[in-house]
Amino acid sequence: MDALKKELKESIIEQLNLEDFTVEDIADDDTLFGDGLGLDSIDALELIVMLDKDYGIKLTDPNEGKAVFVSVEVLATYIAKHRTK
Amino acid sequence: MKKQLKIIAYCRIKNNAISLNGKSIITKDKDLSFSDFAKQIYKEKQLAYPKFFKMDNLCKLAFLTSEFLFEAAKLDSEIIKNTGIVLSNKASSLDTDRNHQDTINDKDNYFPSPAVFVYTLANIMIGEISIRHQIKGENAFFVSEKFNETLIEHYASSLIINRKSSHILCGWVNVDNNNYDAFMYLVAEEGSYNYSKEIIKNIYTQN
């Protein structure tokens, strides 16, 4: 699980162009949206694409996305349970 | 009635160099990619605007040019909020359109990036500048083969004469593969330099 969390942090930084962040800057339970990393709605769409592309998970329900993208911890747990690749 | 308008300041960014009001202020290694050049400028100016890194190259170029211009102009925040923006270029958003196309060419690996797609429209650069400076003035974006100083002059003059905005950010911001060129100028009823289409063409050609 730790490897997956690290991988997710690296992907988030790279794919969302979080130039001022390093893996060490993101705590497992940091809020991804709002006051945490300050991600926006386009970032949310980018994360949905990332789930599909990297883990074979298709998120179609917006409410599900809201629950999944709370933090790296929550996201990693969801991926571990639902990944198809 | 035609008014004699003035140029408050003008800025040019091309070939990894920046000039302000005709004077060279920054020159970087010509071998740097535009992305690396832009990143260096961002860091050196300590802009602290993380959204910059999410922008495509066209928006980064427009954003940086406007930063130098607004800094030099020292305008009141209320004036900035009502500033009109009239920009133009040749390649529209082609540079980013190509990036987007690359993500959808292969139907077996079809993952269009929303973050890329949002920049497949050239006038998004006006939006980025407006968000940065809270600008709510009139705006227009034109695509033409080359910098059309006459069109821009007519449009900017019309906005000022009709009291839509007292200040207009005008210019040309073009990115196509490794080639880029930005030329922006601020026009108003008062300023440091005379403004006419002939004068602006001379400045554009000589800088």
UniProtKB/TrEMBL annotation, chain A:
<feature type="domain" description="Carrier">
    <location>
        <begin position="1"/>
        <end position="83"/>
    </location>
</feature>
<dbReference type="InterPro" id="IPR036736">
    <property type="entry name" value="ACP-like_sf"/>
</dbReference>
<keyword id="KW-0596">Phosphopantetheine</keyword>
<keyword id="KW-0597">Phosphoprotein</keyword>
<dbReference type="Pfam" id="PF00550">
    <property type="entry name" value="PP-binding"/>
</dbReference>
<protein>
    <submittedName>
        <fullName>Acyl carrier protein</fullName>
    </submittedName>
</protein>
<dbReference type="InterPro" id="IPR006162">
    <property type="entry name" value="Ppantetheine_attach_site"/>
</dbReference>
<dbReference type="InterPro" id="IPR009081">
    <property type="entry name" value="PP-bd_ACP"/>
</dbReference>
